[in-house]
Task: structure prediction
Amino acid sequence: MACSSDLPRLANIEDTSVYAVCSFSNDSNPQEVNKVTVYHEFRDNTKDISTLGSYLLNSDSLYVNGYHEPASNLQTKPFEFNVTFVITNLAPTASLLSSNSALYKSASSVIAYQLNNLFTNSKINRTFSNCRVLSFSQAKVGSTSVYSICTFGNDSSPQEVNRVTVYHEFKNKTKDISVLGTYSLDDSSLYVNAETPIAVVTLQPNEGTKPIDLNVTFTIDNLAFTPALQNPNSPEYTSASSNVINSLNNLYKNSKIKETFTNCKLASFSSANQGKTKVETLCSFKNDPTIPGVDKVTAYNEFRDNTGKITALGEYSLNQNSLFVNGYQELESTPVIRDGDLSFELNFTIINRNFTEALNDPTSAEYQSISANITRMLETLYKNSSLKDSYRICKVTGLRIGSVKAICMCYFNPSAASEGVTAEQVKTEFATRTNSTHLLGNTYQLRSNSLAVEAKAPVSSGRTEIPYWGIILIVLGTLLILFLIFALCLLIALCLKKKYHGSYNTLQSAAGVYFPHQKYY
Result:
């Protein structure tokens, strides 16, 4: 019914002992209310005897009518936080919602990895254990709600790890709840052990002095990816991260934007194609109004110009097509498709995107965005394949309903290789570099049996090209005809002149007809 307390007593130098009496009505069932159940309810509602309101508790100090459970039993129980959020670019398909499907296992593994990486590199990483995805559910149209549990060791201080600090770390490490790895997040969807989002009250820094943070991502060709590169405590991680960050810092400190450069920090290592290592870093620059500003384009250009056109960073060899700065990548000149080039039509289905009406319109922003992404991913795929010498370009020619069915045309130069390119080779390279047609560019999840490649007729402009010697003959023939026309005109003019020269006579006939000339005065 109620609890009342006696005067507080001194427990030790810094702590206070509290003696309280809690009363329950007399109609309570003895099995329902006894010293053990009261003890357990107190324990379970104070986070294993750690906090009571604004007070911190000694976890080994609770007694109820003399009943006490040793603290050693409590120390083994970790802190668990339910972390829920919504991914806007992951469609809640039936396959994704089924815990037995390959898509569920793949997506849950990727998201768990991103969460583990987030908290491992956070300010509360001391006692962090792991995160695991428990389920997916449908949120808004085309969006998926993720239900996960993140665990921390029980030796965490309540001030160090609680739902507010977990919320803040998630928010800060996902750019204000906007991105988690390759996933886009609903910025109002984050919940941590709460029915409503936690109100975040922070003092915003002056916008004029707030640093500019740019995400710099690239792939190292001569650093083989191993699981140890995801363990911040491993020697491999320590050595590689130190080398990469030192090289990046030296690059920007000796660049044209060195006056605004602060530092670069490693965000993560992850696996790229063919066992190579993808590096994600965060580079910070001063936001000084007196100095020309730094944006993603200038940061990209300085990286490019100081790495030999994106070929080498310190001791590391780089993939030239792997550099992105806040999503920006310099566009290359579009290869020219020539007559005789071999063309192939590729069809595959993306299952983690929903088809929308906008994808029927090639001029819409949504269509152009997904088309550009697919084109870039196909280019990366084939430029790193055995067909790289023959590859010219791939283009998205259409998107159809059925999740999202992509139709693409890819062109290859038949004279660039000793053997001709076949549809089977194009299909094999695609399947090999998408993990058996499961994942394209670490972004689009594919239906494994949806890939079809069909050889089309070689490119032809429909006109016959005239050889250079033919053009010379035509020009000479034209000049000859013009010369003959000129000569003919000249000849006619001369004949006419000769015919009428001296034809005026006073006597016009042998009969001697005389035409008198009258003179007028």
In short: The first strand starts at residue 2 and ends at 5. The radius of gyration is 40 Å. The chain has four domains: 2-74, 79-192, 212-325, 342-456.
